[in-house]
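Appendix B. Chain record.
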Amino acid sequence: MTTTFLISEAKLRQFTDINNNVDTELIKNAIRESQDIGLQRIIGTALYDKLLSDVDSSSLSGVYKTLVDDYIQDYLLYAAYYYALDSIYLRSRNNGLIQAGGENADSVDRSLYNMKRQSVENKMEYYAERLTNYIIQENGSYPELNENDLLYEQQPNYDSKYRGGFVLPRTLQEEAAVKRGIRLYDSRYPSCPQ
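Structure tokens predicted for this chain:
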């Protein structure tokens, strides 16, 4: 579990509607989860570890700084918020799960909570797609994308729930598909577009 963050708590509070009264530890845990689970799934373990190492040593620069500043932080804003929503809304106590709120606070209806969570998830998915497209386009700039060779390391996953595969008839030529803007994938390597 990492203790290095690619986005600050202050930035998360500044660009989302998370109240200043929300416990700092809840936000830190959400940032950690969004990095370890969400971000690492998109960029792979080797690139993820390199970015954390560069941030730790204050040597983040060049294309890696661009990646973090322009793509990863946008994704992490909404990913961390998404992971924080459950902890903000529900708390574990000795007597079970309770809904958070003070003496004068009104409880939020579960349907409103679900709408808020869906809105945050949609934004998270948009920035994940943007990050994925950048990584695919600029994969030559990040050699770490192809360095994951251990079973416990995650390969970069370029899938998105908004993309759907479809099978083309054999008569359709490859260059005709490319000409029409259709991304082709080799079935042996589904995460790497041609």
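Further analysis of this model is presented in Appendix C.
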